[in-house]
Amino acid sequence: MPERARLRVGVLASGRGSNFQSMVTAAAEGRIPAEVVLLLSDRPGAGALEFARARGIPAEVVEPREHPGREAHDKALIDLLEARRVGLVCLAGYMRILGSGFVEHFRGRLLNIHPSLLPAFPGLHAQRQALEHGVAVAGATVHFVDEGTDTGPIVVQAAVPVLPDDTEASLSDRILAAEHRIYPEAIRLFAEGRLRIEGRRVRILEEGRA
Ligand code: GRF
Asked: Closest ligand 1 atom to the C-alpha of 13?
């Protein structure tokens, strides 16, 4: 069987970029048949940019004020991603809402990670929401992106316990460790062509069936 070409992945990140790092590392170590070919950020100070540059990964800042209006900003992002011929776009702590044009353009090849067991606690401060609600189990979710906030079809989830003395920081750290496992895992499944979106559900095909 001819070897499948490595999936070209573009990543959008606003912050420290630990999820971005986990996918770059997984790809570099050959754990996923993918290559991170572009990092885009809306914040010039994002830690993710520093890591990308140190690794020689093309990285660009697209500041919203340079492209006033959501459509213009989205178009700038789409153009850069298309110029690098990405097959998958991963949101990794990207703090801006993307317009429906962007979502439509990359539908079915746009993933996000969220630090809760969705559909519980969408939106900001998911770990704090989980603590305040008093749940015993928290976790992380990788999902396809649709027009809603953290509402798209779920690909992979991981659960972690909430411990009696947890603070927002300690729970966030435990969830983050799970994030670093499941995001590369979801990308691997996508890269292997094993994800089928069927309505709200994502079917994972057996290895070798894709
Ligand atoms: C992660 O908790 C992710 O789930 C959320 O934003 C955070 C980003 O962290 N969407 P990092 O920048 O990847 O370290």
From this structure: 12
